Structure formats: structure tokens, C-alpha cells
Amino acid sequence: MANAASGMAVSDDCKLxxxxxxxxxTYRYVVFKIEEKQKQVIVETLxxxxxxxxxxxxxxxxxxxxxxxxDFDFVTEENCQKSKIFFIAxxxxxxxxxxxxxxxxxKDRFKRELDGIQVELQATDPTEMxxxxxxxxxx
Length: 139
Hints:
Blueprint: E1 9-10, H1 12-24, E2 29-35, E3 40-47, H2 53-59, E4 66-75, E5 81-90, H3 97-113, E6 119-123, H4 131-138
Parallel strand pairs: 1-3, 5-6
Antiparallel strand pairs: 2-3, 2-4, 4-5
């Protein structure tokens, strides 16, 4: 269960909440946190289906790293309603170096546990994961 690169395990709750977001659309977003003492990734925040992008952006701490998945709804040029699941590796410049290294070394292993991610974003500040960026990457 533990990741050889960083020694991190992924709690079953992470996979369960992701599946609920993907299959049942129970959540708009899920924010994950590495619990260093337990050496595992855990669910930190759940955003209900009616929550907005602004709620999601506000749920990410300004000076700590996080992983997140966001169910992005959009309309194509052909006027079709679609959605894509984004994986966001949030690593603000103001986060501790150790934390940034830990999240970077655990990211690929954690992402593999979440089957169904369609787009990945790496963001160090809010402008790198703005709605315009989501729209541009969704099409």
C-alpha cells in the first residue's frame, strides 16, 4: 500500500470519495491532504454538487500543498453539455520546501489510485488554475 518513493499510503476513503464524485456526481470537488504523521493521503474537504469554482478555490490553503479533483462542467462549441475531471497538484510558492518535495514525489502514485482523471493541472498560484485555464484545457 505504501509508496516506495515517499512512503505514503492512500486511505480507502480517498478512492471511495473519488468514485462517488466520478460515478454518482455526489461532489463537485474533493481536496486531499498528506497526513505526515500517519504517512498517508486523506480526504480533507468535500464540496457538494451545488458548490462553485470559487468555493473550490477558497478551500485550498494559501501556503500549504494539496491534491484536489474537480468535476468541471462546460458546454462545447457544438452546444453539448459535458464534464471533465481535473486533477490539481496545488503547490504554492509559499509552502515549505519539504512539503513541496513530499507532494511532488507522491503525486504520480496517488494519481494512479484515482482511475478516471482526464486532465492534470500543476498550480503554484490561483492564476494557474483559473476558470479560463480549466476551459482551455477541457476542450
